[in-house]
Amino acid sequence: DNACLTLAIETSCDETSAAVVAGGRQILSNIISSQVPVHQKFGGVVPEIASRKHIENVIPVVDEALQQAGVALAQISAIGVTYGPGLVGALLVGVAAAKALAFATGIPLVGVNHLEGHIFANFLAHAELEPPFVALVVSGGHTSLVSVQDYNQFALIGQTRDDAAGEAFDKVARVMGLPYPGGPQIDRLAAAGNPAAIDFPRALTGKSSFEFSFSGLKSAVLNYLNQAEQRGQRVSQADVAASFQAAVVDVLVSKAVQAARFYSVDRLVLAGGVAANSMLQAKLTGACTEQDIRLYYPGAVLCTDNAAMIACRAYYQFCSGKVSDLYLNAVPSLKI
Ligand code: KG4
Ligand code: ZN
């Protein structure tokens, strides 16, 4: 129903975002105010600074989202907001803003799980996509395989035991002297390197496990760089980037395809910031073609944090009566 307009706010990490979506799937506006330049000089997100920036940005960003969509607040059917997982102080800013708007207007409030939001970005990007499918969510904070049985029915298949895939990209980039966020930097550098140059470990692949582990890989890259330095050997940055990236991608691809087969679905959905990785997209496309699985992933803007995906998720919750009350609180370690 395109008359149903959802406004959403996303402040879980370092982007302040607000969006208006019609009928759950049509983006009317998706304003993203990135704090990347602010955090770059510290080599990563500084939580306290993120919270303060969200406070400055949240109301102007909401205003801009409504204005660009050409709708008044009174026309909104539901207000969605990310309440976890994420940085507690950052989440609280969005939650407080959404609660204030809901309280002042009487518009229903819908608390949204950020990971579910990432998955739902695919509904915005692909009009024909419907559950059931298996989703691989790969971001700075998460690496999870999720069975999406229906719009409001999920089951966690497996997740990382330690570092998230994006976290591994960011940490490896940092030791290589590349700026934050490191994922896109490694992606670019790797294009000129040989992915078979260095044999970095692929964890937990032998067993039929749907869990991931990336901290050993991160240490292996660190050891490789340290040893080369001690021996005075020159290393090819491009080869290190390509070989590291290949190790991450191999594991992600094999487990995602395995999960789709195990759950007997012929659709696989890729989501989260790392979904923008060019090698992951290429290798997963190849593997899915081979296995007769249809692969979906969003464009770059909808891969990384944005409020449109939260508005989409909020729509489907709202339609099934899954609304929140004004006691909604931030839950930093919220599970799927
Ligand atoms: O989903 P997202 O914007 O925020 C979280 O919810 O964490 O994901 C950000 C993560 C960062 O770790 C960033 O380095 C990674 O996604 N990323 C990439 C690429 N673009 C973003 N990693 C690998 N290749 C990329 N092209
Ligand atoms: Zn995210």
Q: What does this protein structure show overall?
A:
This protein is an alpha/beta fold. It has two domains: 5-120 and 303-319, Nucleotidyltransferase, domain 5; 131-297, Nucleotidyltransferase, domain 5 (2-Layer Sandwich). Helix content is 44%, strand content 19%. The protein contains eleven helices and ten strands. It has helices at residues 36-40, 47-69, 88-105, 114-125, 165-175, 182-190, 215-230, 237-262, 278-290, 300-303, 308-319, and strands at 5-10, 15-22, 26-34, 78-84, 109-113, 133-138, 143-150, 153-159, 267-271, 294-296. Strands 3-2-1-4-5 form a five-stranded mixed sheet, with helices on both faces. It has a five-stranded mixed sheet with strand order 8-7-6-9-10, sandwiched between helices. A hairpin with a 4-residue loop joins strand 1 and strand 2 (15-22). Helix 4 (114-125) crosses helix 11. The radius of gyration is 20 Å and the shape is globular. It starts with a strand and ends in a 17-residue tail after the last helix. The model has no long low-confidence stretch (mean pLDDT 96). It binds 5'-O-[(R)-(carboxyoxy)(hydroxy)phosphoryl]adenosine and zinc ion (ZN). Zinc ion binds at residues 114, 118, 139, 272, 305. One of its GO terms (molecular function) is iron ion binding. Belongs to the KAE1 / TsaD family.
User: What ligands can be seen in this structure?
Assistant: 5'-O-[(R)-(carboxyoxy)(hydroxy)phosphoryl]adenosine, zinc ion
The CATH class label of the largest domain is Alpha Beta
Estimated structural class: alpha/beta
CA-atom Rg in angstroms: 20 Å
| Tally of distinct domains | 2
CATH-derived architecture of the largest domain: 2-Layer Sandwich
SSE run: EEEHHEHEHEEEHHHHEHEHH
Task: Let me know the average pLDDT.
Answer: 96
Q: Which strand order does the major sheet show?
A: 3-2-1-4-5
* Uncertain regions spanning at least 5 consecutive residues: none
CATH topology term of the largest domain: Nucleotidyltransferase, domain 5
